[in-house]
Amino acid sequence: MMAMSLRDGQLAIRQIPHPTPSSGQILVRTLACAICASDHHYMDHPEIAASDRSRMRVLAPESDVVMGHEFCGEIVEYGPDTKKEWPIGSRITATPALFTDGELRIIGMAPDAPGAFGEYFLVSEGFARPLPETIPPENLSLIDAIAVGWYYTGLGTEDPAAVPLVVGLGAIGLSAVVALHQRGVPHIVAADFSDSRRALAQSLGADTVVDPAIESPFAAWRRVAWGTDEDIVDRIRLAGLPKCVVYECSGAEGVLADVIEQCAIGTRILTAGGPAEDVIPTDVAHLKGVNLQFGGGPDPSDWFEMCDLVASGQVDTGPLVGEVVGFDGLVDAFERARSSAAPPRIVFRPDAG
């Protein structure tokens, strides 16, 4: 089959063996697959896969690894020991994890778990869900991305009085905005240097958007949450004032440290971005009583819940799709997607011209 594979650190469109479904697996034909920053991290930081003791990611530089874990496809063939719940040709997606030879892999991050930047890929039947024919496949491919925001906002809205600040408005930051709006959060502050991304966040439900080049996002947050620009540090005066929940989604080195330095006392930070390595001021975090959580999601329950919301039309992922490319433009698009000037999501469709 034709696929964009990673081999010896290089991406190229290659002919590679057609995957064959084994026990509990479904062979799926790719309809759409979005380019995610996690694909870049897997390619750029092989040390992460090498140190993954769970073996969900596998470092295999001499093998063809087909990335792509945000996908929509159609059923081609069932492997043995499957329930065959949906007819051949049905549209499906799945959580991006594959049971293979008794191990669990992240789809697109191991040679034996090919992703959807190829003509065909594999999913575990138990993780699959049917999708409607009425929604464009490129929109459906963003279910995994939007589920990340759903997961983090489930944690961050435990205090109903807290006011959120979303830092970084790529696909994951925008997914947090969408999820906060869907959950009925009344005040959403969002920050990004990009005019277009701030405008998109506003259209998706953020009522206050900030350009950090012009104003501190935390000053804007204080006006919304506290009604003042003043950075209140007196814990007695802070009693009864709304807490801050920061969704750090930038992925840029130094941003998390800046959030810790500028945030209010008692802030909860949920970091979905972050580079492979960073330095943070733990002394400041300690003095402020910052609650910091790294990654960890989405949980399956959040993923399936968001899948249902998108499939039913209650959540529209279409505004996050900025560009659709075919095989001819896929390698170039993968590189362009690294830029903050790129659309929130570039989506691959094999049938795109």
How does this structure look, described?
Keywords: Oxidoreductase. GO terms for molecular function: oxidoreductase activity. It comes from Gordonia rhizosphera NBRC 16068. This is Putative zinc-containing alcohol dehydrogenase. It holds the Pfam family ADH_N. The model has no long low-confidence stretch (mean pLDDT 95). The protein is built from 12 helices and 17 strands. By secondary structure, it is of the alpha/beta class. The protein starts with a strand and ends in a 5-residue tail after the last strand. Helix 4 crosses helix 5. It folds into 2 domains: 173 residues, Quinone Oxidoreductase, Chain A, domain 1 (Alpha-Beta Complex); 150 residues, Rossmann fold. The strands form 4 sheets. Strands 3, 4, 5, 8, 9, 16 and 17 form a 7-stranded mixed beta sheet that branches. The radius of gyration is 21 Å and the shape is elongated.
